[in-house]
Amino acid sequence: MDSCCTPGRTAARENTTLLPVPSVPASLAASPERRPERRPEGQDEPEFVDLPGGEFLMGDGFGEGYPSDGEQPVHRVELTAFTIATTTVTNAQFAAFAAATGHRTDAELYGSSAVFHLALRARARDVRGQAPRTPWWLDVAGADWAHPAGSLSHWEEAPDHPVVHVSWDDAIAYCHWAGARLPTEAEWEYAARGGHPGRRYPWGDPLTPDGEDRCNIWHGTFPTHNTLSDGRLTTAPVRSYPPNDHGLYETSGNVWEWCADWFSPAYYRRSPRHNPLGPRTGTARVTRGGSYLCHDSYCNRYRLAARSANTPESSAGNCGFRIARDLTEDKRPGPADGLR
Fold first, then answer.
1. Would the pLDDT of 88 be above 50?
2. How far apart are CA 108 and CA 299, in angstroms?
3. What's the Cα-to-Cα distance from 253 to each of 174, 232, 273, 289, rounded to whole Å?
4. Which of 37, 81, 231, 306 is the most buried (most CB within 10 A)?
5. Residue 303: enclosing H or E segment and its boundaries?
6. Cα separation of 113 and 106, whole Å?
7. What's the pLDDT at 17?
8. Out of 209-213, 250-254, 332-336, which region has the weakest mean confidence (pLDDT)?
């Protein structure tokens, strides 16, 4: 899969300017079966917020989505109470996981990952080529979670930024270590909406109320010139913008976030009302929230209803994740009032 938002790992096989992607032995591939040891209790713990079960209307009520993304029809969803991290997993948190488990990400196993061309910090020989339909993405040898802009960068320069260059498989491995899971797509949207029905963004319908930036997206002419009017070319530290009314930060922009579900543009037409889990099978996993590269001239997927997807082994410099957990019976808050 090769969307305008994040290039798929398989794109390399379709573009003669890129080196072929090496095969990864099944014994090394990250998966739910390849489980690292669990994280010791209380160590490098993300902050969580408990959300009550309740109903909300899921999907695009403005008719602004891309038909191929399947953001409609708007449909009623009822969820059981759960808990979700207030931010995406940071570089420092992922570093603790990697140090404790020795986990090697898909980007490290493949030897390269996708870096936005203006963010590149690598040697010229590290650039293997460009993504076929999105040439602003470079396939860069040595780019991975610890070297987000290429081999000449390092995560320690930005410990409180979202970790990137993690595949869905890597996110699952982290979740097992943390005693957590990825949120379902429905849980993600419910949490991101902050208890407000029908909003376009977490803070309301205008993108920049009173001229104020509320999220980290592209400013300027994409993909060649960023005005840097907000001071950001790539990621912002977590908690850089005000949280929504559920206490979640950066659910619009900054980095795409992996969800648990397989992706299908037709799923909303048959989604069950209670705790939908997505299709049973697929080729790509859902991503939500948009990233620092989103711009309404080509991709307005930083809206709350927006969806995208990528193959589970794919990684890029604008995709991360946040984690969730089930709530035990004695911790569940009361039901939410009305539609959310």
1. yes
2. 29
3. 22, 12, 28, 6
4. 306
5. none
6. 9
7. 35
8. 332-336
| Cα–Cα dist 208/191, whole Å | 21
- 310 neighbors 6 (Cβ within 8 angstroms): yes
**Each residue of 157-173: pLDDT tens digit?**
999 999 999 999 999 99
Q: What is the CA radius of gyration of the chain?
A: 19
Beta bridge pairs of residue 31: none
- pLDDT higher than 70, residue 10: no
**Model confidence over 271-298: pLDDT tens digits?**
999 999 999 999 999 999 999 999 988 8
Per DSSP, helices labelled H in the chain are: 11-14, 91-101, 106-110, 168-178, 185-193
Mean pLDDT of 40-69: 87
Beta-strand ranges (E) seen in 179-238 are 220-221, 225-226
Tokens 């840097």 correspond to 228
Longest CA–CA separation in the chain, Å: 58
Candidates 172, 139, 155, 31; CA nearest to 96 is 155
